[in-house]
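Holo model, 1,3-dihydroxyacetonephosphate. Inputs:
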Amino acid sequence: MRRSIVIGNWKMNGTLESSRDLLQKLRNRVDREGSRGEIGVCVPYVFIPEAREILNRSPILLGSQNVADQSSGAYTGEISARMLQEFDCRLAIVGHSERRLLYGESNELVAARFRQAIDSGLVPVLCVGETLEQRERGETFDTVLAQLNAVFARSGVQSLLNAIIAYEPVWAIGTGKTATGEQAREVHAFIRNKIAGIDEAVAEGLRILYGGSVKPDNARDLFSMPDIDGGLIGGASLDAESFLTICYSV
Ligand code: 13P
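Output:
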């Protein structure tokens, strides 16, 4: 049985004060009521030290929104996996579509970031997904497969034993347009089947999350689909009540 996980991706939002408040609320409720599946929060880098203090000894997992493709050296602006480890980060999002589309991160660069995370024991949350144009041209599966293949070429399919995949159709991110349960399920099943063709045990244990306008009122339907093992939540993770409602919907 795969343990479900819901991860908040705060993106570039909040202040030190608002993030303290949000983390404290999450922590308090999870301390009181426990959680169904796992819960994680990927906060902006500068809030990581504070988040680490607030989440100390909480089951809520701390994560970053990216990780460097190199281990150390002259890479201005990058943060290494080791640095994140030092601050008790457990998760690192890689290949988010905003990184791919707005900052030109290629499949190969994402694969290198993924590799760094794996090598240092961080759990990469590898985001894959198609744009609206790609979907309309019938290229959804090819797009996702190319994104996965770059990672397999670099790290092998076995690396997925310590990773999470998030399917995030770009057209559903921040648009309020959610994929239907069936649209999501179809791609999740495609991903799992592809991997099963190489290694069945890896495919069976792999958690594949859905992301893209997940809200308290659609979470339950999405999470009830086979092959959907939780969610990667953007906007709705910025409000404690909404995020927790989603977390408790698994
Ligand atoms: P929204 O939930 O705001 O659509 O964002 C999804 C996302 O990009 C999570 O990584």
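Residues 5-247 form a domain with the TIM Barrel fold (CATH 3.20.20.70). Residues 77 and 236 are 28 Å apart (CA to CA).
Archived with the compound record.
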